[in-house]
Amino acid sequence: MTGSDSWWNCLGATLLMVGLSLSSPSMADDEFKGPRLRMLDEIATTVTRTQAHTGRQRLSARVIEAMGGVPRHEFVPQELRELAYANRALPIGHGQTISQPYIVALMTELAELQPEDVVLEIGTGSGYQAAVLAMLARQVYTIEIISELGQRAERDLRRLGYSNVQVRIGDGYHGWPEHAPFDAILVTAAPDQIPPPLLEQLRSGGRLIVPVGPAGATQWLKLLRKDEHGTVHEEDVLPVGFVPLTGSH
Question: What is the pTM of this model?
């Protein structure tokens, strides 16, 4: 049995376990069923290849379920729908991108979300990452600084039934203090340094996942955990390339 065959068998068992059989609406409603399964296969392969960096050998069943259940083709421009399930970032306008599925899956895995968690996302973009988070958490708050993108994402999320996502147009550097503290915060654009307001809005035991570094130079995806004493523990997870975090900071 090849490594790929082994993965497909494991994937099939996992999909059955989490209720993502090929007859379910999320997996069988259109011509994207095959590409979506291949996307999951490519994500799993990339997780294995990057294990030395990340320390993660596989994704949890809940994250696989979320990645398989969100229709990524609904969050990309119409002219790019044929590429929606390729394991690559795609442009969505205004110099922004929808992140590579592997990166979305990895950041979601690092967040370690539980069903009652409240999550903040900085950088709504297309709304795809927010939709994945919404499959796993009780409430998602997401901030987008580009009003056209934020409004489009809000319409798409509402149209697709993600009722536990609230979108705000604004500067995400400062977080969303009215709804803090958060169990997890994900930042989908790279600041030069970790924004202090986000650490302040993180609950004890919470996780902050953020790429840090200037555009065009080495950036690191970081995982920060705040313990019960308020001490923050930082881990470099993976070298990455994100668009810069913009705003008044």
Answer: 0.88
Query: How confident is the model at residue 249, as a pLDDT?
Result: 63
Q: Report if residue 247 sits inside a domain.
A: no
Instruction: Give domain status of residue 248, yes or no.
Output: no
Structural domain count, the chain: 1
In a domain, 209, yes or no: yes
Mean pLDDT of 109-132: 98
Please report, for the domain that includes residue 30, its CATH number.
3.40.50.150
**DSSP character for 246?**
P
pLDDT recorded at residue 109: 98
pLDDT score for 29: 54
The Cα–Cα gap between 140 and 104 comes to 15
Q: How far is CA 218 from the centre of its chain?
A: 21
Q: Which helix (H) or strand (E) holds 202?
A: strand 202-212
Domain span holding position 216: 3-240
3-state SS class at 210: strand
Task: Tell me the pLDDT tens digit for each residue of 40-66.
Answer: 999 999 999 999 999 999 999 999 999
Bond before 181 cis per omega within 30 degrees: yes
CA dist list (Å): 206 to 44, 90, 111, 112, 200: 26, 30, 8, 9, 11
Would you please indicate which residues are annotated as catalytic (active-site) residues?
A: 99
For 152, the token pair is: 């489009």
**Distance of alpha carbon 244 from alpha carbon 242, whole angstroms:** 6
Tokens for 144, please give them: 């987008």
